[in-house]
Amino acid sequence: MLYRILLSALILAGLILIPFHAEALDLKDKELLLYLPFNEGKGDAMEDLSPHGNDAELVGDADWVDGKFGKALGFEQAGEVKAPYIE
C-alpha cells in the first residue's frame, strides 16, 4: 500500500514539473537574443538557434578539437567567435 502511494506521488510530481522544465528550454523565447551551442564540429559558421538568427563566424587561429563531450573549439593564440552587434 505504501509503495502505491509513493509511486503515485512520484508520478504526480513528475507530471507537474515537466511543463516547467520544457518552458525553460523554449528556444522560441523572444527575449533570447543569441544562442550559439558550438556543436557544429567543423567549419567557420556558428548557427544562432535563437529566433533572431544572429549567426556568428569563427575568425583567426582556432580549430575544432576533441572535447570532453564531442567537439570543442581550441584557441592557440589568436582567434575569436564574432557575432553581430545586438542592441
Describe how the helices and strands are arranged.
Elements: H1 2-24, E1 45-46, E2 56-66, E3 71-82
Antiparallel strand pairs: 1-2, 2-3
Short description:
This protein is an alpha+beta fold. The protein has one helix spanning 2-24; strands at residues 45-46, 56-66, 71-82. The chain is built from 1 helix and 3 strands, in the order αβββ.
Tell me what you see in this structure.
With about 90 residues, this protein is α+β, with helices and mostly antiparallel strands. The chain has one domain. It is about 25% helix and about 30% strand. The chain has one helix at about 1-25; strands at about 45, 55-65, 70-80. A hairpin with a 4-residue loop joins strand 2 (about 55-65) and strand 3. The longest helix has 23 residues, at about 1-25. The chain is elongated and about 65 Å long. The mean pLDDT is about 75.
Features:
87 residues; alpha+beta; three-stranded antiparallel β-sheet; 29% strand
